[in-house]
Amino acid sequence: MKTIIEPFRIKSVEPIRMTTRDERKSLIKDNHYNLFSLKSDDVLIDLLTDSGTGAMSSNQWAAIMRGDESYAGSPSFLHFEAAVRNLMPFTYILPTHQGRAAEAILFSIYGGKGKNIPNNTHFDTTRGNIEATGARAHDLVIDEGRDPTNEHPFKGNMNLDKLEAYLAEHKDSVPCVMMTITNNAGGGQPVSLENIRAVAAIAKKHGKPFIIDGCRFAENAWFIKLREPGQADRSITDIVRDCFTCADGMTMSAKKDGFANIGGWLALNDSDIADLARAKLIQTEGFPTYGGMAGRDLEAIAQGLSEIVDEDYLRYRIRTNAYISEKLDAMGIPVVKPAGGHAVFVDARKWLSHIPPLSYPGHALAVALYEIGGIRSCEIGTVMFGRQPDGTEQPAAMDLVRMAFPRRTYTQSHADYLIESFEELVPLKDRLKGFKITEEPKLMRHFTCHFAPLG
Known about the structure:
Blueprint: H1 21-30, E1 45-46, H2 58-64, H3 75-87, E2 92-96, H4 99-110, E3 116-119, H5 124-131, E4 136-139, H6 160-170, E5 177-180, H7 193-205, E6 210-213, H8 217-227, H9 236-245, E7 249-253, E8 264-268, H10 271-284, H11 295-307, H12 311-330, E9 343-347, H13 348-351, H14 361-373, E10 375-376, E11 378-380, H15 382-385, E12 400-404, H16 412-425, E13 435-439, E14 450-453
Helix pairs in contact: 1-14, 2-11, 3-11, 4-5, 4-10, 6-7, 8-9, 12-16, 14-16
């Protein structure tokens, strides 16, 4: 069939408050033009993030009722641990309330002034947690990953030559090598199994632990199955296991490919590092058998991990993004190609070329999309990554607008409404103006900063 239907039925619905364009113009102005500051009731289609915003299955809701809230030794932790280890064969699994907590614990150990940490591309909280310790985060994605139009099948890959040179240059100041799958800040682009294995081998040669940020591991595995030679006949579960067998540890937000509304974990193989992490976990999150989550959340994640590797779901999930990307491309709207796993990314710097990067074309597009269609998206560009640790500002590698789709939440008509909203934007795009930041915090400014329109 040409139509790939949603592989689920809807058993419960949540009403959407239908706002007008005039209302939305007033609402975004009242919130200093920061989309994060909007109330969710004032958003028609919320594509700000796919983190914790998905719909849980009936089996997950049933699992919640089995949640055991014992402070220590809960059977819900054992179910959670077994589900994680079934896919990611790590020795020590430490639950956290979400992925950024796992990052904070990891970099309380590996971070610090003078340290340098490479990645294909660090996402915002990863970079923020690294820089908060005084360490520096460096991106070493392949050159194709910085070209939105390039159709390379694995644009999230690490540049192996650059990694070798980086480790040779920085030597003892590098505490670990990281990799993000899929590469969120680079357009949701996947990493090949071949590249994961090669990065692991380079890290091992230099005596560095290899850590995977695995938030979207199932989507990455689906791309491996679709695009990598020799992988087409393998199960998603086996591909996932191969990816993580290469690593010495991982951070995870279960709010993405864990199908959960909250939760995450830090997994490690080194007993000494695990001991340090466990002590920090108890200090900041909770006892090691709940780690900042309720037992019911542990059960929801355990069930979600069995559902996320379903190939019918992954086929539908990836095709949804490709469908929207193709429609936007046909309108002449520059999108990151090929379509990513969890989101559609528009190249705002190219589409709004009359707005300089330091006037934030991505943010200008995101604001206009909200005003016209009530759609909340997220700038991934100079607002998010432009401020440097020394306080200076420079354009990010790309200025993108990410429309991240919550899992199992929206339908075909929502996708078509998004496309129609862009049709409304096309004749207006040359009149859009940039923004300036009027107030910002020192770290991760995009969450809370204030904007004012230029001109």
